[in-house]
Write a structure and sequence with these properties.
Helices cover 10% and strands 43% of the residues. It starts with a helix and ends with a strand. The chain has 13 helices and 46 strands. The chain is globular and about 100 Å long.
Length: 984
């Protein structure tokens, strides 16, 4: 991993300077292309690096390129690509990169076991992911509506190096390269057999172990080579209750009114308007802000940081020299199986409103004293059962006891075949790519049919799972092939017969998705013309790409207008989408050596899409060498992201959407009692064929300085101007609805319309002019006052109902800028080398318009957006062994105090952790990773110890988990050991 051989091949001090664009982990650098010739050979392979299609010229100097070699990956101890990306400053910070820690079990969540890498925190769909320079199919299951490439489908063991270009690159690669490109280069031309085993685990008392086995084999023949690899990875789960920091809730006020073992009696059923906690609550009752005592639920009880994951992957690369042609074919296959868990589903009425009804006889489970005490404080009211009986009972608040448990299977494969050759001193290349990703989900536990469950509680369920018919005249319930079973009692805990009745209401909804990419490309590369003593180099090419995606849930998980958008089951939404598109692109790229000290690179690409139109994106880069040891570089470009196929093709997606009352005071006054909290609601999302492409303009300016052969420094300033971001914007729709009556609906939003759904009873009141909320000119503030006087609600806000219908739109802009730096210093000793490195990213600004508001908010330094992330390293390296440490730093940032509920804010304030303005900072976090390895003749032994000093994740009151899972982790000290054996 020394620079000297690279410098001899590429060109002295210039090669040494450009190496400075490395990330914190790489010492070998930007020229780790395996293109170094033997010193006795005069010819050198013309290499190509990420960010350019021109081979054989020093393009790295025009752009900051980060390179991770296989050795770097091994030294970090990363077993998956998502683990690796957590060590790279350009992919740390913000909400962009994610892994299983941020996934969930419901059908519209990001599937467990999958992960995405995002540059600059902009989002994974704005980062182009390549494998060997060509695209790979996105996951068929989007993160929300944002399609992403599952980087865990790429086995880390097969990666020779990773090249990261964190600046706009659509002029070279087309869509999605808004924030840049991550290119995973797989191993090839291998000779021999390598076996590797790896084990990792935490040091606490629970087994979170992960095992990894890898095989790499290669064989060269007269004019060909075959390289093949296999990878097996198996990981145990990690639960919040496994760790001391997250075993108990951070705030006792962060509870839910919906317990999972025994119900609370709903406040509508209590004489004093306060909920009554179940007498047989499994945990101590909690006193709420209303003074009531309830059986509460805390999400950490069922929170999984890592879910069980088993992954198999393999691949083969075949390279054949045929006269002057080179034929290369590569196949990559992976299969991941995971089980995901989410909090037990809430239990609602059939129409999804709160407080389901249960007959009075449910209280018979308690002794007479307890039962009579409850009845003294309750209303027993008439209600109509599901089958139509007139019964007497009361309402309750609860969730099911069993967590929603989803099994996920994903199979991905990718086949690429490329033919290369030369024609009149021009190199040409043509390739075909087919990539496919198929995923399926099956809810194996915790999902129940809303109709069957309601019938069961009302005593109207049959033994075959059907619902009984009720004859009003004879007052008789009848079943078809089955027999009537006893009523299910939600207050009867641990009664086998009762649990068997509940089991009759369980359903197994499914979800299946497919994502496909088919592409043809052809390009040429060579010398266009002489320019003095040098030559102007050019690359040009064309590409055709077809993409298809489908995401289809089972019928019992689909919302349909014919059924008032009710999904048959509780707690498992639908994401029905299907879309396809064709794209044609053409590009030209020039490298112009203007003078001995000045190079200019120019590129432009035209892309045409059959569904939303065309776009042209240029790029210009400049490299100036005032002296041999210094490079000054700059680049400007535009980029775009086409609306994802999911965004264009969503037919109806059931999900939860948040609106942010801190972004718009008018919205806060009407819907949040004036508070700045974030509220969540059930919504239906619709695709939008009229979406525009997201556009971006990028600028980078930097320098690379090598005062000595062993000292390298890079500093790069970068900025992005990102416009027309695609998202749903419930805050904006609520704000628009204040003056737009077409967006206001009492009850379900009619089919074909969009907007907000209000409690149907809201139309029983009017403003001072006699207008209902659905009428033009209605004053919503006056309607709120009238509603309070009419209903005396628990919360003084306009009552939202369910299934608001929102259309995806181009919602806003964001502008961000920052500085990357990297310093490398090697100190040669008599028996080895000390290698020092320091690198990081500092965000100077991150401005984005607030959803539903024209106000610009500064994200840098706010919750989950640290201003500074940095890494340092020190290693002692010899021919036989190495030992050293990485230090990872994540800067402090503001806690999300403004979005706490009043009761949570009061508790945090009482703890004395807030400053005079009612704010606090999430502390900075520094962890140390030890890494060591020994090279035997035919064997390598490596060991890493992560978070050496067992540092807890910084406390974040703004997160329900008590820590920020995007920037920190609660695992404490973890270790890994790996052994590789080589057969030559």
């Amino acid at each position: 991993m020394k620079l000297s051989a690279i410098s001899k091949t590429i060109g002295g001090a210039l090669g040494s300077a450009v190496v400075l664009s490395l990330n914190p982990l790489s010492f070998a650098a930007a020229y780790a292309q395996d293109a170094i010739s033997d010193e006795t050979t005069e010819t050198v392979e013309r290499i190509q690096v990420t960010g350019t299609n021109i081979r054989g010229v020093d393009m790295e100097g025009a752009q900051p390129l980060t390179v991770l070699t296989a050795e770097d990956i091994a030294k970090t101890g990363a077993s998956t690509i998502s683990d690796l990306m957590r060590t790279v400053s350009q992919t740390r910070g913000g909400l962009g990169s994610f892994d299983t820690t941020q996934s969930g079990a419901t059908s519209t969540s990001t599937p467990a076991g999958q992960a995405a890498a995002s540059l600059r925190g902009i989002g994974p769909s704005a980062t182009l992911t390549l494998v060997n320079g060509r695209r790979i199919a996105a996951s068929s299951f989007a993160a929300g509506t944002e399609n992403f490439v599952d980087v865990n489908s790429i086995p880390a063991s097969a990666v020779e190096r990773v090249e990261i270009l964190a600046t706009g690159a659509s002029a070279i690669y087309g869509a999605d390269a808004v924030a840049g490109v991550i290119n995973y280069i797989l191993k090839d031309n291998y000779e021999g057999l390598e076996l590797n085993g790896r084990y990792e685990n935490t040091t606490n008392s629970h087994d979170h172990g992960a095992t990894n086995f890898q095989v790499l084999w290669g064989k060269s023949f007269d004019n060909s080579n075959v390289t093949a690899y296999l990878d097996y990875y198996d990981r145990n789960d990690a639960r919040a209750t496994d760790f001391s920091q997250t075993r108990d809730p951070l705030l006792t006020s962060s509870y839910s009114y919906l317990p999972k073992n025994t119900p609370n009696i709903y406040y509508f059923a209590a004489r004093d308007g306060n909920e009554i906690g179940a007498p047989n609550c499994a945990s101590p009752l909690v006193t709420t802000e209303f003074g009531e005592e309830i059986c509460a639920y805390y999400g950490n009880e069922d929170d999984y940081f890592e879910t069980p994951l088993t992954a198999y992957s393999g691949g083969v690369t075949y390279t054949q020299e045929i006269n002057d042609l080179t034929w290369r074919t590569e196949l990559l296959v992976s299969h991941n199986k995971s089980t995901s868990f989410s909090s037990p589903a809430p239990i609602n009425q059939v129409d999804d409103s709160e407080g389901p009804w249960v007959p009075e006889t449910a209280l018979d489970v308690f002794d007479d004293t307890t039962r009579n005490a409850l009845l003294d404080n309750m209303y027993i009211d008439p209600f109509t059962s599901f089958a139509g009986q007139d019964l007497y009972g009361f309402q309750y608040d609860a969730r099911f006891s069993t967590p929603r448990t989803i099994e996920i299977d994903t199979t991905a494969y990718r086949l690429v075949s490329v033919l290369q050759g030369e024609f009149n001193d021009w190199e040409w290349e043509a390739g075909v790519t087919y990539s496919n990703s198929e995923s399926s989900q099956e809810a194996v536990a915790g999902i129940y049919n809303r109709y069957k469950y309601t019938a069961a509680v009302h005593g109207e369920l049959c033994s075959d799972g059907s619902i009984a018919d009720y004859d009003y005249d004879s007052d008789v319930l009848t079943c078809g092939s089955g027999s009537l079973v006893n009523a299910y009692n939600p207050f009867a805990v641990g009664v086998t017969a009762n649990d068997q009745i509940l089991a009759l209401t369980q359903e197994v909804p499914t979800r299946d998705g497919t994502s496909e990419v088919f592409a043809l490309d052809a390009k040429v590369n060579g010398e266009l013309m002489q320019w003095g003593d040098e030559a102007i180099m050019m690359a040009a090419g064309v590409e055709f790409r077809r993409e298809e995606i489908t995401d289809t849930p089972s019928l019992n998980a689909q919302a349909q207008a014919s059924n008032d958008y009710l999904v048959d089951v509780f707690g498992f939404g639908s994401s029905l989408s299907a879309a396809d598109r064709n794209q044609f692109g053409a590009f030209v790229e020039l490298f112009v050596p203007v003078s001995e000290k000045l190079d200019v690179s120019l590129a432009g690409r035209f892309d045409d899409y059959n569904d939303f139109g065309s776009t042209f994106n240029p790029k210009i880069g400049v490299v100036f060498r005032p002296v041999d040891d210094l490079i000054l570089r700059g680049a400007w470009s535009t980029a775009f992201r086409a609306p994802s196929l999911t965004q264009a093709g969503v037919k109806l997606r059931t999900t939860r959407a948040s609106f942010d009352c801190s972004a718009n005071q008018a919205v806060a006054d009407l819907y949040c009692e004036g508070q700045g909290s974030v509220r969540g609601n059930n919504v239906l999302e619709l695709g939008n064929a009229s979406l525009k492409a997201e556009e971006s303009e990028a600028l980078s300016i930097g320098l690379a300085y090598s005062p000595t052969e062993k000292t390298h420094i890079t500093i790069d300033y970068w900025q992005f101007d990102h416009e027309d971001i695609v998202d749903t914007n419930m805050t904006g729709v609520l704000a628009a609805a204040i003056n737009d009556a077409s967006l206001r609906h009492c009850g379900i939003v009619p089919e074909g319309q969009t907007g907000i759904s209000y409690d149907p009873d809201l139309c029983l009141v009017t403003d001072d002019s006699g207008l209902t909320i659905e009428e033009d000119g209605a004053n919503l503030t006056e309607i709120l006052d009238a509603w309070i006087a009419f209903d005396d609600p628990r919360f003084y806000e306009l009552p939202l109902y369910r299934d608001h219908i929102l259309q995806l739109e181009n919602t806003g802009t964001q502008e961000l800028s920052g500085v990357d730096w990297r310093i490398i210093q090697d100190i040669e000793l008599s028996k080895g080398t000390i290698e020092l490195g320091f690198s990081g990213t500092h965000y100077l600004s991150y401005d984005r318009n607030k959803p539903g508001s024209d106000e610009i908010e500064e994200l840098a330094g706010t919750f989950r957006y640290p201003e500074t992330v940095a890494s340092a390293e020190i290693f002692y390296v010899t021919d036989d062994w190495y030992a050293g440490a990485y230090v990872y730093y994540t800067g402090s940032y503001q806690d999300d105090i403004i979005r706490l509920r009043n009761r949570e804010f009061d508790e945090v304030e009482a703890l004395g952790v807030l400053d005079a303005d009612g704010n606090r900072d999430v502390e900075s976090w520094t962890t140390v990773t030890l890494s060591a390895g020994y090279y035997f003749e035919n064997m390598d032994l490596r060991f890493t110890l992560d978070n050496l000093f067992d540092e807890d994740a910084p406390v974040a009151y703004g997160s329900a988990r008590g820590f920020d899972a995007y920037n920190h982790d609660p695992y404490g000290t973890t270790y890994s050991v790996s052994l590789s054996y080589y057969f030559k």
